[in-house]
Amino acid sequence: MAIAIRLSRGGAKKRPYYRIVVSDTRSPRDGKYLEQIGTYNPLLAKDSGERVKINEDRARYWLGVGAQPSDRVARFLDAAGIKERAARSNPKKAEPGEKAKERAEERAAKQAEAEEAKKAAEAEAAAPAEEAAAEEAPAEAPAEESTEEKTEG
């Protein structure tokens, strides 16, 4: 028989209260259990001593018999100094999935195309303005010279 140390939920809707129980892995979460070895009240402050209560002697006994704690219970046992829990490292946890990466690449490509189109439009708009300015400048220059010559003479 496989034995687990896990949480069994109680309490009202949106007011959870958990028992730390030792049970057969095949039994339902809130169903039959072999022994209750503690309680967990998540509504209390994290630094409260009443938040997690564990009977250390019984927890050590069941761990010695071969009971496997759930992840949450393993954290409680580690905090109480009953069983050492190996730290987990998941470097890919914050990394987006494949679809999100594809969407980001598409978005970046569209943005690059838009910037290129904007630069091309600015270049086209600037080129005729420069040509027009270049055409107007020589036309104005002789006119100015001729007015200067008339005023001198």
State the gist of this model:
By secondary structure, the chain is of the alpha+beta class. Helix content is 49%, strand content 20%.
Description:
- With 153 residues, the protein is of the alpha+beta class.
- The chain folds into 2 domains: 3-80, 2-Layer Sandwich (S16 Ribosomal Protein, Chain: A), CATH 3.30.1320.10; 96-138.
- The protein is 49% helix and 20% strand.
- It has 3 helices and 5 strands.
- The protein starts with a strand and ends with a helix.
- Belongs to the bacterial ribosomal protein bS16 family.
- One of its GO terms (cellular component) is cytoplasm.
- GO terms for molecular function: structural constituent of ribosome.
- InterPro entries: Ribosomal_bS16, Ribosomal_bS16_CS, Ribosomal_bS16_dom_sf.
Sequence-ordered SSE layout with sheet pairings:
Elements: E1 3-12, E2 15-24, E3 35-40, E4 52-54, H1 56-65, E5 68-69, H2 71-80, H3 98-152
Parallel strand pairs: 1-5
Antiparallel strand pairs: 1-2, 2-3, 3-4
Radius of gyration, in angstroms, nearest whole number: 38 Å
Based on helices, strands and strand pairing, what is the structural class?
A: alpha+beta
Q: Roughly how much helix do the residues carry, as a percent range?
A: 40-55%
Strand content: 15-25%
- What is the spatial order of strands in the main beta sheet? 4-3-2-1-5
* Low-pLDDT stretches: none
Count the DSSP helices: 3
CATH topology term of the largest domain: S16 Ribosomal Protein, Chain: A
CATH superfamily (homologous) name of the largest domain: Ribosomal protein S16
Major sheet size, sense and barrel closure: 5 strands, mixed
Q: Mean pLDDT score, rounded? A: 86
Protein name: Small ribosomal subunit protein bS16
Pfam families: Ribosomal_S16 (PF00886)
Keywords: Ribonucleoprotein, Ribosomal protein
Biased composition (Acidic residues): 132-147
